[in-house]
Amino acid sequence: MASIDQKAMLEAGVHFGHLRKKWNPKMLPYIFSEKKGIHVIDLNKTAAKLEEAGNVLRNMAKNDKTVLFVATKKQAKDIVKKAAMSCEMPFVTERWLGGMLTNFATIRKSVRKMQNIDKMFKDGTVKNITKKERLMLSRQKDKLEKVLGGIANLNRIPQAVFVVDIFHEDIAISECKKLGINTLGMVDTNSDPNKVNFAIPANDDSSKSIEYIVTYLAACINEGRKEKATAKEEANAENAAEVTHVEPTNVVPEAEEAAPAVESAPSED
After folding, report:
1. How far is the C-alpha of 150 from the C-alpha of 259, rounded, in Å?
2. What is the tens place of the pLDDT at every residue in 67-95?
3. Beta bridge partners of 161
4. What is the pTM of this model?
5. Domain boundary assignment for the chain
6. How far apart (Å, rounded) are the C-alpha atoms in residues 165 and 197?
7. Which helix (H) or strand (E) holds 199?
8. What is the CATH number of domain 6-98+160-230?
9. What is the Rg, in whole angstroms, of the alpha carbon atoms belonging to the chain?
10. Pairwise CA distance, residues 35 & 204, whole Å
11. What topology is assigned to 102-156 in CATH?
């Protein structure tokens, strides 16, 4: 089971917040102190909230729920993409398209278009069109893959969305709220933790801090999948054992052969 190491969080700079003048008063419960005008996040609170979020994602993975990872900040893109791919979850790391969730049907059309173009290149269909048309299709394919590549396999609206910076990803959070989708997020001292269902107070600007948080959450998702697989294997083993272990049925003994009837001797008159 994934464990939380406060010393590792300290080394990753998870506790560093923003300048005091940029703080959001609603983050007060998660602030430990102030040092040189910078707020310091209470890592005990971070650990508790991170564990809570990890348990939520673990349970979702056990029930085959989908979690969308969102991080369009430069320092978070590659880290979040890697973490999402490690737990086989969809991700958005380039640009959040307005209506990506609230207008999901239209987004799916764009994804199918991207997949059709990709199929044309793979099966050689593009050889039947002009060089100029191939070039245009190639550019369109690259553009679509850059924005929609991470959600190519997302066939329905996700059951939860995790964001690295809720202040930066406010459009995504707003769409989730409209649709009633559970949200989890890294919340720095300049943000309102009440905007997400599960807030993780942490430094959302440091790449090391982001990596620590998302790596832990991805590990929780993988653990949930393993627990489900193990439970399924145990159930199958029990069913197999029940089939092979058949209780002997009661055998009715064959009736003994009746003794031949003895004819009575004729009586003498």
Report:
1. 87
2. 999 999 999 999 999 999 999 999 999 99
3. 68, 183
4. 0.85
5. 6-98+160-230, 102-156
6. 14
7. strand 198-201
8. 3.40.50.10490
9. 31
10. 18
11. Helix Hairpins (1.10.287)
